[in-house]
Amino acid sequence: MFLNQFLIFAAVLFCIGVYGVLTRKNGVLVLMSIELILNAVNINLVAFGAYNSDIGGQVFALFIIAVAAAEVGVGLAIVLLIYRNRRSIDVSEADLLKG
Amino acid sequence: MLSTILAQAIERPEIDWHAVSPELLLLGGGALVTVIDLIFLERARRFMPTLTSLVFLVALVPVLTLWGQGDDLPRVMWDGAYVVDNYSLVLKGLFLLSGYVIVLLSTNYMSEGDYYDSEYYQLISASVLGMLVMTSARDLVSIFVAIELVSIPAYLMAAWRKRDLKSNEAGLKYMLMGVFASAILLYGMSLLYGLSGSTKLSDIAETISIGESKPIITLAIVFTVIGFGFKVSAVPFHTWAPDTYEGAPTPLTAFLSVASKAAGFVALVTVVIIAFPGQAEVVEPLMWVFSALTMTVGNLIALRQTNLVRMLAYSGIAQAGYMMAPLAVYGGIEDRAASAVVTYLVIYAAMNLGAFAVVIIAARKTRSAEISSYGGLFNYAPGLTVAMTFFLFSLAGIPPVGGWWAKFEIFRILTEGNEVGGISLAVIAAVNAVIAAFYYLSIAKQMWFMPAPDGDETPISIPPSLAAAVGITLAVTIVTGVLPGLVSEMTDFVNVALP
Asked: What total of structural domains would you count in chain B?
């Protein structure tokens, strides 16, 4: 069983996702980068599940897919709201509130 | 593979209906609220707050009856993935009561603004349901689902004022950071699952707690703890919190800074105490740094805020630093560290919700949350001023009101091990308590001694629901401070059922 390849693939995907979240300014692309991280997690879980011949990992991955869909649904609704009010989904322009 | 799935599907797990009835009642109540809204539409708007608060109170009944049967606890379900023990019962009571107080705070705010209010109450009950599940979850899958059930409705509620750009921005920042934090947390969880071959916390504890340290174990723990760090707004992952707190509707700010933060803490404590007892040498330094940074940075920024809501937001971040402190020394005294955190959470919930209730009442007259607008409050609202002073004293940790006992418990846990880590953190916490007392008391000074900014001293009309919210929180704040024996009994009572 080749576990390493899957883990390295997932780690690369995770890093691309984190890079995307930190550098992208477009709200939708940030959400897509987060999806990349979640898919890295799913690959990890399924690979570990198959390696340990345990079904828990695949069940966990199914839960993540379902919850991520809800998350993105809410996320896109909020991005759409921003677009309606300011005609732009550039995250860096959202600076009315200064931390 | 298929045969194993079928075998598991056919073998129906035992369900302890009494033990899960708080969750089921809240689920049924939330569904009822939704259906009534769909049938009666506009006509139902007036009854929604009352109905939702009744749902919370009804769900509280089985929590009390379970508490009454103390001997049967802990009740373990689904092969140890879901546990009802003293720890989860106290927290369930806390979450249902804070949900009730939040509904009281929202009633007038929501019906007087141009908001969609029926949906708001449905989302509040969904979020509180997530918190109830969180207190009992002892499995990575259910912890993840619970934390998302808490967060997703909160993202929507933060952006509730649809046409207000500030509220939109609050929702966007909260949502992006929250989803990113969940993703990081999940990556840590996937590594934990890979190491142990099980999603149950007790199995993870057995595999990774042999005392050996491997880089991969450290990596998994760091990712998991950082993910929770975002959720509880620990510095340096706190940047979303002040913006979200300022832009969101004020009752929701109270909800986020009390209930939602407490839910994050419950998840953090559960995972650290149950799954990482053998990895204290990895978790403790991490928590030490988080705790010291969180309380110092939170307090220093709170010091120069001129808006009371933002100040309470930063002071809430600082308070989270104190709550994290017991986890910096938890090795060997897991139970007592957990109960110190829970004690702090209960008292913090009461005093902070109370402070927010006063802010909401005062804003009905002044239309502002600037600290300068609180001048002269004593002249036209003496009762409110006295209540706020109690809450501020409690937040600062001055006896005889509740906050001092919560801080005392933290200091006791930190210093009793006589280790460098604990004592140095206690010193940092003590210095921070002094800084915090300064800005809390400056608000009290503003209310008692300064003149009203525009000379307008007509009395405030306080709606009954807001008066009730102040009354409940004030009673809890004072009772926990005057009768610390009561709290310490509860503290001894709160013990996590360790496998």
From this structure: 1
